[in-house]
Specification:
This protein has 298 residues and is α/β, with parallel strands linked by helices. It has eleven helices and 14 strands.
């Protein structure tokens, strides 16, 4: 795939604080790229720099191979803060104001309201909208200029489960149209559900980047139950088949070494006289991998 964004050795310092430290990454065209990390990891600062809202201390970035400029900012759409519209104006009137500011024709308003499923509520005041609807109107605003890249900072933050599902489905719908999307988030489950690629940040440093299916496929876990968990744990740790054994309820969960299968573990335990009550490969989550990555960098 072609490259939409390239960041090279980008840093931002606030005095002695390194908010972003020597960050380099590439965003492929057509991807949904998640920038994942806990609060204070540098996600929002990174988005601010690539949008020219924050001046970097050092480093550079390019959009479609070109340095940042007023022209290539026109192909970007972004939501960096909580949606802020006039509460006693309708969704349609609020978007007319945004369109005027952006020098965009009103003819685009119907299109974006239909994309965000707000067309039937276009005459209703913004103050009557749920939080999820307000976020969808913000997305409609960001889509007015038909951006090639959509940049979202914590797009589901503060939403209830229904609002999260609505925004998630909308992101997938926009991505399916070919728009490249960059999302900063600390919500691991949401990144796993919508993103094709992910970069993990900690204290301004990148500790992993790659495809989501790669990070999920980079380790396997086995879940084992037995009448004597203490003996089971000793055998697992001494087997050279698995490591990092942890107790979860009445079972143990261990990380399998490369090339080791659940069948290998089962055969080894049987040969050691361990009577197991349960054994299965554990489906891993992005949360587990994320926490493991953060732990490895302590």
């Amino acid at each position: 795939m072609d490259e939409v964004l390239r960041i090279q050795n980008l840093s931002k310092n606030y005095g002695r604080v390194h908010a972003v430290n020597n960050l380099s990454l590439q965003v492929p065209e057509g991807s949904v790229y998640g920038i994942l990390g806990p609060n204070g990891s540098g996600k929002t600062t990174t988005l601010g720099m690539i949008l020219d809202v924050i001046n970097p201390t050092s480093g550079s970035f390019t959009w479609f191979g070109k340095s940042a400029s007023k022209e290539n900012r026109k192909i970007l759409g972004a939501i960096l803060e909580t949606p802020n519209f006039y509460p006693y104006l309708s969704a349609e009137k609020n978007l007319e104001i945004v369109a005027t500011i952006k020098h965009i024709g009103y003819s685009h308003i119907e299109r974006v309201l239909k994309i965000t499923d707000l067309w039937e509520r276009r005459k209703d005041h913004f103050s009557t909208f749920s939080l999820g609807m307000k976020q969808r109107l913000a997305l409609a605003s960001a889509l007015l200029n038909e951006p090639l890249v959509l940049i979202l900072d914590e797009p589901t933050n503060g939403l209830d489960p229904q609002g999260i599902a609505e925004v998630r489905n909308l992101i997938l719908k926009i991505a399916a149209s070919g728009t490249t999307i960059i999302i900063a988030s600390h919500l691991l489950d949401e990144v796993q559900k919508v993103c094709t690629h992910v970069a993990v940040l900690k204290s301004g440093n990148i500790i992993f980047q790659g495809r989501v299916d790669e990070i999920l496929g980079s380790a396997k876990y086995v879940e084992v139950g037995a009448s004597d968990l203490g003996q089971l744990g000793e055998v697992l740790l001494g087997s050279q088949l698995a490591s990092n054994v942890q107790k979860e309820g009445d079972r143990l969960v261990a990380t399998l070494y490369d090339g080791v299968s659940v069948e290998d573990v089962s055969k080894h335990l049987f040969s050691k006289g361990i009577s197991i009550t349960h054994i299965a490969e554990r489906k891993i989550s992005l949360e587990k991998q994320f926490l493991d990555l953060l732990a490895d960098t302590k």
